[in-house]
Every structure is written in structure tokens, then in C-alpha cells.
Amino acid sequence: MAIYxxxxxxxxxLDAERAHALTIAALKAAPIGAPPRSPPALASRVAGLDFPxxxxxAAGFDKNAEVPEKMLGLGFGFAEVGTLTPLPQPGxxxxxxxxxxxxxxxINRLGFNNGGQADAAKRLARRDRTHGIVGINIxxxxxxxxxxxxxxxxxxxxxxxxxxxxxxxxSPNTPGLRALQDEDALDALxxxxxxxxxxHGPPIFLKVAPDLDPADIxxxxxxxxxxxxxxxxxxxTTISRPPLQSKLASETGGLSGRPLAPLARQRLADIRAATxxxxxxxxxxxxxxxxxxxxxxxxxxxxxxxxxxxxxEGPGLGRRIVLGxxxxxxxxxxxTIGDAVGSG
Length: 344
What we know:
The chain contains twelve helices and 13 strands. By secondary structure, it is of the alpha/beta class. The chain has one domain (4-340): Aldolase class I (TIM Barrel), CATH 3.20.20. The protein has an eight-stranded parallel β-barrel with strand order 3-4-7-8-9-10-12-13, surrounded by four helices. It has a three-stranded antiparallel β-sheet with strand order 5-6-11, with no helix packed on it. The longest helix has 16 residues, at 317-332. The two termini are 32 Å apart.
């Protein structure tokens, strides 16, 4: 892990998607290690699940559920795989991932490229579920005639294999997908996915975009509460463009990484205010340090997730944030991490 700063210049000579594929291959070849022990004060119970620490791997890193146990072994408190669609699909044309190195950011327009739910299910069925919490992020196929039906299919197929499910309607790279955040469509989607899960399935989290106006936020909070979502993941990449230094800033797609942090913080605050703490919130977007993770927890996030920062900070980042959070918790006088949620 400590050698990554020396390797990064070499890694960055490769196309970003090629480098990521090699990372997954290296992780697959590595032995599975038991997850390192998390500081006891960082344990919390969220949506009926016992998390050893609040730092998770966001969806998108392990699209095909190839290395969730390896990522748990690096110290993450949970790992989310996917996005997985009912049928395999290639995604958008390449190149489709761009490093904005000067901004410590990434733009992607991948488009839910994955091998499909049936392929991933074979691997997920073999995993040792005692190794930790693995969520499954599901989406709709680009050419689907009934996208809500795709989510129903995904819930039924993946619920037996998931510790939690994420309904992802927040990607900007599948045309029309974010329209499912509109009030009537969202109500129908959540009604049908909760029914597909049944009474004894895993918790369901709804993942929403950061590019929301006040009316969207109010509707999402109201409908998610009424349909008894177990949590909200806030958010995903943004189609907005804050000031950026990189020449690649004009590429289309979703922006992630450090420049997303201010928008992600604001949207977390907005959703927290709209829900009135009625359900847990998982914060995503621009988290690259223990201090940023701590700020999201103080702002109301029960859990945090990261992905893009791994490209710049290396695979040991999750563990470093975990240990940093414990130091910040102790310094600020909180007995447990749960006591700090929303305290800011």
C-alpha cells in the first residue's frame, strides 16, 4: 500500500479504463485475507445491519462483483458491487473514463457496462458472507422497454445474495434514467421494488443524484419515507462543472472526485433537512480523507463511501480513513461514531 505513490506515475501512463482492469485482475490474483479489525468505537447498526466501521467502497469500482471480499480485506467496512443490469451490456463507446489529474477528479460516461446479473450471481453465491457486508447496486438496461420492470427483476434476482440492495436511478450516463427521480415515476418504482423484495428481503437503499432542485429533494424525501426505504445514498457523479484546471473538463459524463465535495456536502444537508432524520443517509462524492468523511458524518451521514479517490491515494485509503476517523472521534469526545452522526 505504501508503495502506491511510487507506482502511480506508471499507472497513470495507462488509459484509465485499462489501468482499472489491471487493478481488478491484480486483486483477483491476491489471496483473500481476513478483514483487519476495526476500532470498536466505529461499529454501528444501520438499517438492521452491523457495520464494523462506516467507510464503504462505492459502486462502480467492482462492477461485476469480482473482488468484494478482497476490498473488505483492505479495511472497508462494507463494499457495494455493480451497477448490475438484468442483461449484459457493453456500455458507451470508448474512451469513456478521463483522469483530471490537476483537479484530483474523474469524468466517466461508462453507461452501466457490466456482464449482467446472472453472471455476477454465480460469484456472489460463492462468497463467504461472514467476511463482511456486501451491497448489490442494480440498474436498468439502456434499451429496456420497461425500466421499472428491470428494477423488479434485479431485486428478485439479487436479493437472496445481498446484504443490502441499492436502487440506482442517479447515473447521468444512461439517457432518461434520472427521470425516474420524478415524483410519479419514483413512487411507482419504489412501490414495485419493495413489493418485489417481499417481507423478509434485505434492506433497500435509494441512490439519488446530487443534481437536484428543492422540489426534487422534497419529493424524494416524502416518497422514500412513505415507501419505507431503509436509507438514501446521496449522491452520484454530477453533470455540473465547477471551476476545473484540467483540459479534459469539457468531456461529457459524470464528474467525481475532489471538486464534487462542496455540492455533495450541500445535497447531504438538504436531504437530511428534508427527511428530518427519518432514515439513514450514506454520503458519497469527493471523500478523500478522514477529515472529509468526518465532516459528512457530523452533517448527518451514518455511513460514507468512496471510489474516485482510490485512483489518486491508492488502495490503502479506506483503512487510513478508518483509523483517522477513530482519532477524530476520540479527539472530539464522542464515545462512538454513532454519537457523532448529525452532531455538526
